[in-house]
Amino acid sequence: MSTPLEDSPAASDVAPFDVAQVRADFPILSTEVHGKPLVYLDNAATAQKPNEVIDAVAEFYRRENANIHRGVHFLSMQATQRYDHARARVARAIGAIEPREVIFVRGATEGINLVAQCFLRPRLQAGDEILLTGMEHHANIIPWQLVADATGAQVRAIPITDAGELDLEQAVEALTDRTRLLAFSHVSNVLGTINSAKELVAAAKSKGIPVLIDGAQAVPHGPVDVLDLGCDFYTFSGHKVYAPDGIGVLWGRAEVLNAMDPYQGGGDMIERVRFEGSTFRAIPERFEAGTPNISAAIGLGVAFDYLEALGWDRIQAHEAALLQHGVQRLRELPGITLFGPDTATRASVISFSLEGVHPHDVGTFLDGDGIAIRVGHHCAQPLMDRLGVAATTRASFALYNTTEEIDKLVDSLHKVVNFFRDSS
Q1: How far apart are CA 411 and CA 370, in angstroms?
Q2: Catalytic residues
Q3: Which residues of the chain have pLDDT under 70?
Q4: Could you confirm whether domain 5-49+312-419 is CATH 3.90.1150.10?
Q5: Measured between alpha carbons, how far is 377 from 394 in angstroms, rounded to an integer?
Q6: Which residues have a Cβ under 8 Å from the Cβ of 388 and sit 6 or more positions away?
Q7: What pairing do the DSSP bridges indicate for beta strands 179-185 and 154-158?
Q8: I need a labelling partner for 182 at 20 to 30 A (CA). Which of 52, 130, 341, 422 fits?
C-alpha cells in the first residue's frame, strides 16, 4: 500500500538525496536564458525530462521502431513487448489490479473526455447533475458541460473556503439523489491544495455515485494507489511526471471500462469488421484506436522507474522543504498576497499576486533574469473569479529545484517591486 499523498513525510524524517546529482540527470537545466542560468519553476505546466527518459525514447527509434500488435517480424514483436511492459509498469506504479485497466490516452484531458462521452453521457437525463469543485482546471469542467448541454443535465460546483480548501461537510451535503458523477482534482493546479480524496470518494460511493479523480497535479508529487482511493476512474498526464508529451493514462475498473462503448473507431480496437456491423475488443485495446504513441508510453514507464529509484519519501520531503522555504521567503515581499491553504495541506505550488503589478509584467521581468514561472488564469477562470483576481503568478517546484533558485526568484521579485514602485 503506497503512502497517501496527504501524508507526505517531513523533510527532517527522511535522508535527503543529492540535488546536484539529480540536476545532472536533466540536461535542459544547464541551459542559459538571456545569458543567465535557467531557473525553471513552471513544473505544474510541464516537468523536464531526465536522461533516462530521453535515452529510452531515442533508443526505441534507433533500434526498435515498428508498429505494435500487427506484425510477426522481430521489430514489431520487440516494440509490442516494450509497449505492453510500459502498461504493466504504469499499472504497478498506481496500484492497479491488472495492466488492462490502464488505458493510454494523450493526457488527462483526453481521459476526462473519454469518460464524459463513453461512460456518463449515455447515463444522463434532463435534470441530472454532475458535481465538480470550485477549484477545477478547465479540462475537468468543459467535457462535463458538453455532455450536460447535450442531455439537459446540469453542472454544479462545491464551493471552496477562503483558505482555498473544500469544506467536507458541505461537499457531502452537495451529493444528492440527482448526482450522477463526482469529478474533482486530487491537487489544485493553482492553489496546490491536496483534496481529501479518500473521504470525498467514500462519501460519494456511500450514495452509489461514481467518481473520477483528475490526478494530473498529484502523480508528480507522490505515490498514488487507485484501489486505496476507491474511485472508479483516475487520470493523469505523462508530461507533468517527467515523461514525454502526448501520453497519459486513464485508469478505470475493468468491469466499468468493458461495459463502455468505444470512444473512437479504427485499427487495433476491433474484433471483427463487417459492413453490416462490427464488434470490438476488450480493454485496453477497445479505447486505443489507431497507432498509439509507442515511444512516449515507453518513456512514461521509464519515468516511473526513475522516480521510484530516487524514492518517493525523499522526493516528497525535498519538495516539502522547498515549499516551506518558498512561502517563508515570498512573505518578505511588500504587497504580496499568497493564495492557497497552509503548507501542510498543499503540494509544492505557490500562486501569488503583487500589489500594483500585473502578473504578465512579473513574468516578463523574471524571464529577463532567466526565471521561468507561469502567469495568467492557469486554465481555472472560475477559481480566479472566486479569488477575486483576473490572473496570478505561479511558481511550482519539482524534485530538481533548490532553495538557491527560490532565493533568486525572491531577489528578482524584489527588483520587480522596486521598479514599479519607483515608476509610480
Answers
A1: 12
A2: 379
A3: 1-13, 424
A4: yes
A5: 10
A6: none
A7: unpaired
A8: 341
Pinpoint the alpha helices (H) of 180-311: 197-205, 226-229, 254-258, 294-310
Single-letter residue type at 374: R
CA torsion sign, 381 to 385 to 387 to 390? positive
Segment 352-358 long-range contacts (CB within 8 Å, at least 24 positions apart): 352/392, 352/393, 352/394, 352/395, 353/389, 353/392, 353/393, 354/393, 354/413, 354/416, 354/417, 354/420, 356/420, 356/421, 356/424, 357/416, 357/417, 357/420, 358/391
Residue 71 grid cell: 506484425
Number of Cα atoms under 13 Å in the Cβ half of residue 374: 20
pLDDT of residue 5: 66
In CATH terms, is domain 54-308 a member of 3.20.20.70?
A: no
In which residue are the cell numbers 516494450 written?
A: 82
pLDDT at 279: 87
pLDDT at residue number 330? 98
Say if residue 284 is preceded by a cis peptide, omega within 30 of 0: yes
Burial of 77: CB neighbours in 10 Å, binned 0-12, 13-18, 19+: middle
3-state secondary structure of 34: coil
Distance CA 30, CA 17 (A): 19
Domain ranges for the chain, please list them.
Answer: 5-49+312-419, 54-308
Structural Rg of the chain based on CA atoms: 22
In this prediction the pTM is: 0.95
Q: How many distinct helices (H) and strands (E) make up the chain?
A: 14, 17
DSSP SS3 for 280? strand
